[in-house]
Amino acid sequence: MIMGKIIRIGTRESELAIWQATQVKDLLKQSGIESELVYIKSEGDIDTVTPLYALGVIGVFTKTLDAALLNNRIDIAVHSMKDVPVQLAEGIQQAAVLKRGSYKDILVLHPDLSERNAPFTVNHISITSGSKTKVRDNSWSLALREHTDKPGKQEDVVIATSSFRRIAQWLNRYPDHKIENLRGNVNTRLKKLKESNWHGAIFAAAGLERINLRPENSIELDWMLPAPAQGAIMVVCREDDNYAFESCQLFNDEETALCTKIERDFLSALLGGCSTPISALAQVKNGEVHFKGNIVSPDGYDIAEGNAIYPLAIASDLGFIAARKILTTGGQAIIDKLANATK
What we know:
The protein is an alpha/beta fold. Helices cover 31% and strands 23% of the residues. The strands form three sheets. Strands 2-1-3-11-4 form a five-stranded mixed beta sheet, sandwiched between helices. It has a five-stranded mixed beta sheet with strand order 8-7-9-5-10.
């Protein structure tokens, strides 16, 4: 270690980003390493109106920090790992992954929902509109949602999110609902929800829980698969900065690093240049890695999904293996359908 060197930690200016960077600062301090926060505004923070899928999601929250890192304005950058492109910028390497928080998505209901006598209640969340094929462990399948004219449709239910993945999974389960765009940091999005006529908005549980903002009227969406690496925090540094790399390796969580690698490998193998909603979750249980993944058409109509269980010792390539399975059991058809629609 280099005595007296202060590591400069680059972070976005949102409350959540600062919380995450402070966690890294505290971990470095525990190892006797001095550091300081450097605040940098990202492109994703500047434009909080345009839907993420219209902005071009890849790197929208990380590019500015990458530039600061490569220009030697900072020594490490701290990111929500789900925001980090699977291909890191040239000259930048993963230095550490912190122990994962909650990977779940939650639905936050409008705070005045009951007072408005809205036709949308907590009980509605457990009801699936249409039908969907269930998959078993170690199985892969393609499901086509059945459109029906059954009574009790909920056309007047409005849910807010700007996530392509969340939109597709929600419409797959609730095809009659309307989706509204919702951008901004978590504080801004909660404020927009309160001021809206929406019934609810979808958030990552970890983001709200970390800064003690999770409302009581929120529901965990256990059926919704998360974005690859959701709930994890990644630290990156320059490839030639051994001091920063070795300092961060002191708090690298190997189990989280493995699971997020598998999820991001799955994403990488399926991307193919298409902005297709892709979800993945890998968890270590009793010496095995349990994996779930899916790819959904943007309108929610088609979904290819599957589960797999691999021994921990040979699970490193599970993300790529799962992607190949998905492609041969409906995933490729979804990607081709999307590609043809954009020609």
